[in-house]
Write a structure and sequence with these properties.
The protein has 153 residues and is of the alpha+beta class. The chain has five helices and five strands, in the order E-H-H-H-E-E-E-H-E-H. The protein has a single domain, classed as Gcn5-related N-acetyltransferase (GNAT) (Aminopeptidase, 3-Layer(aba) Sandwich), CATH 3.40.630. The longest helix has 16 residues.
């Protein structure tokens, strides 16, 4: 990643960064209604960002959020260990192909290692044609074919 970008973990006092990241997700995923239309309250976001098991990283160019990821640390029950789940990762289109996504994952790897996590995983719903996303994740691990079911409570 070029040095013009800075990585930062968002803390509970930086709601402006979290809201900017939500806008990046909305634009990149073409889901503005989901990520921007009904954003959580400030108190909800503060509580979420204060949690030890929630990780929000952004890449900044100056003061502009141009990329980021959100991940959750999941404590396991079968052994005293955890795993980290990348829930969302996006880079604004004009900032792609500059190593930002790779740098975000590398930073998350460092954080996960310090937390004692044994693995980081991502369930990508990218289409097989999305060669860039598949290439990114393939640099870090082995892909698996999985089924995903949404169960309504």
């Amino acid at each position: 990643m070029k040095t013009e970008y800075q990585l930062k973990q968002i803390d509970q006092d930086q709601l402006f960064l979290m809201r900017a990241l939500l806008e990046v997700f909305g634009k990149v995923f073409n889901e503005m209604d989901i990520y921007v239309g009904k954003q959580p309250t400030a108190e909800y976001l503060r509580q979420l960002l204060a949690r030890d098991d929630f990780i929000a990283l952004v890449a900044l160019k100056g003061t502009e959020v141009v990329a980021g990821l959100v991940a959750y640390e999941l404590n396991k029950f079968e052994q005293e260990r955890s795993e980290v789940y990348i829930y969302d990762l996006a880079v604004a289109s004009q900032h792609r192909r500059k190593g930002i996504a790779t740098a975000l994952i590398e930073e998350l790897k460092t954080m996960a290692s310090h937390r004692g996590a044994y693995v980081i995983f991502v369930q990508s719903d990218t289409e097989p044609e999305d060669k860039a996303a598949i290439a990114l994740y393939s640099k870090f691990g082995v892909g698996e074919a999985v089924l995903h079911f949404d169960i309504t409570p």
